[in-house]
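Problem 3 from the worked examples.
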Amino acid sequence: MIKPFGNQILIEPHKKESIIQDENSLLEYGTVVEIGDKVEVIKKGDVIAFLIWGVNKIEIDNKTYYFINEDDKFILGNVYE
């Protein structure tokens, strides 16, 4: 696994369908699997809603993950069931 630097978070996307809000925003859900040492609000294990535009996608062991800055406008909030 990768440990993010600073206020970066690492998200494992859920296999659910993406939600298209409009032609410029694709909403995804995922679980925060790692956080950087300067992350203040988001916690490891949180399920969050985020827009995939502007995030950094990586693959580790054939799994897709996203890096997002905690302060980024692409993170919309925590998801509760």
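Problem 4, a separate protein:
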Amino acid sequence: MGRTIPSFRIALAMEKEDWKPFRYALDKSDRKKFDEMFELPKFYISACSNSVQYVRLHPTLMSILLYHYKQLRECISEVERIEVIVNSKKKWLTKEEAKEEKEEVHATLDTYFIY
């Protein structure tokens, strides 16, 4: 019995092949990133295969989005963890130390902005 939909590994290779003109129009550094991005769906081959989408790009894009969403959530969690540590440190500072720290931050920020 024949299959009307190719395996996802084959579909992913076909999709990547379709995007070659776009890839070649990118800078060399962007080409590497583009290739890395197209490797991400391989982490989700099983889910992509089971989704049985007629448009090959849909499961590919969902895989890439899911991967980046998970990375973003990890970054947010790490920032929240650091904020807790910083805020608990500030509670132990004396008023004078807190004032000095605030002045240091303000002085540091002044180097980034043009008034």
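Solution to problem 4. Helices lie at 8-18, 20-25, 28-39, 45-51, 57-92, 95-110. The first helix runs from residue 8 to 18.
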